[in-house]
Write a structure and sequence with these properties.
antibiotic biosynthesis, alpha+beta, five-stranded mixed beta sheet, 19 strands
Length: 334
């Protein structure tokens, strides 16, 4: 397919358990294809929540940056990263550094910040030999599948993210905030509703309360939008959890999540959330040159464990303020 002028679901692969897959023939000109079909492909993302485009032949970082730039005019700079990334020119990032043998649970990118991307762009330059798929999951479907009492509690209380920054696990203070200047970090925290406390030796602990359920700023759909399960201690592999508790203590984990009132989230709740995600996940193994576009509010994404080298580049775009998404809990800022 070389044209999307009459794009419709009948021209796409739509199969249960798989993301919407659009096969194209870019004729060796991925940037030209993206420029010509920008509105059509963005429309398909609006229809399906996520679209995997196959056939662009993306082969290097420069081409990926150009294609990303054709598909969005509003790239974002990442703030408050939970794990390191490599930043490339033109607002392109590496995938988050995360152990290959550990999956990344379903989540919405930067859903703990006050400004987050509405669009994520992912480009595969090199697929792994085993695993490593980026799964996607419809968040309104997840919300509807949750028990009513649990849903009501999270709507009423929101969720709490706690972080203990160090120089060994996860993003460092400098990597997360883009500066090592304490005054600048404190100003950022105060402006973004983040409680903070400096620790002996220069470490930092933070707490931030956010809404677990929001409304999509375009469609008005209610979406389960958070990183409650992904950043919770009970999603970690048992041996990793035990190691981190032994080294840092139960209250000093690099990150953890709680109910919005500060009470711990039980292991049973976290497992339930992950089970609901898995029951509604669509995944397709990456092929070299693939492009995926994800509506970050409507659609959660994950990363399977993998073997072998894997290079997937990431773009964040079309910033949205939490305040424009009908949050259910108040965030107090300076």
């Amino acid at each position: 397919m070389s044209s999307l002028s009459k794009a419709s679901p009948h021209e796409m692969d739509l199969c249960p358990g798989l993301p919407a897959l659009l096969r194209v023939d870019a004729g060796g000109d991925a940037a030209g294809w993206a420029s010509t079909h920008r509105d059509a492909i963005r429309g398909l993302v609006a229809d399906h929540g996520a679209v995997l485009v196959r056939g662009l032949g993306l082969a290097d970082q420069a081409t990926v940056a150009t294609v990303f730039g054709k598909l969005t005019a509003s790239p974002m700079t990442e703030r408050e990263a939970f794990a390191p990334r490599t930043a490339y020119p033109d607002s392109v990032y590496s995938s988050t550094a995360w152990p290959p043998n550990q999956p990344m649970c379903m989540h919405h990118e930067l859903s703990y910040t006050l400004e987050f991307p509405r669009l994520m762009l992912l480009a595969c330059l090199s697929p792994p030999t085993v695993g490593g798929a980026t799964g996607v999951c419809d968040s309104p479907t997840v919300l509807a599948a949750l028990p009513a009492d649990l849903r009501a509690r999270f709507e009423r209380e929101g969720w709490l993210l706690t972080r203990s920054f160090n120089d060994e696990i996860g993003a460092s203070v400098t990597e997360a905030f883009g500066t090592e200047n304490r005054t600048a970090i404190e100003d950022y925290c105060q402006a973004n509703g983040i409680e903070f406390a400096w620790q002996p030796g220069g470490g930092l602990r933070t707490r931030q309360r956010r809404s677990a359920i929001v409304r999509h700023p375009v469609t008005g759909q209610r979406c389960w939008f958070n990183q409650i399960a992904f950043l919770n201690e009970w999603t970690l592999a048992p041996e990793v959890h035990d190691y981190l508790v032994d080294i840092y203590g139960a209250d000093g984990l690099p990150f953890n999540t709680r109910f919005g009132n500060g009470e711990p989230i039980g292991e049973d709740v976290v497992h339930l959330l992950n089970q609901v995600y898995e029951a509604n996940t669509a995944r397709e193994p990456w092929q070299a040159g693939d492009l995926m576009l994800v509506d970050n509010i409507r659609t959660a994404h994950s990363r399977d464990a993998f073997e072998g080298p894997r290079e997937v580049l990431v773009g964040l775009a079309d910033a949205v303020r939490l305040s424009d998404c009908s949050p259910t809990v108040e965030v107090r800022t300076r």
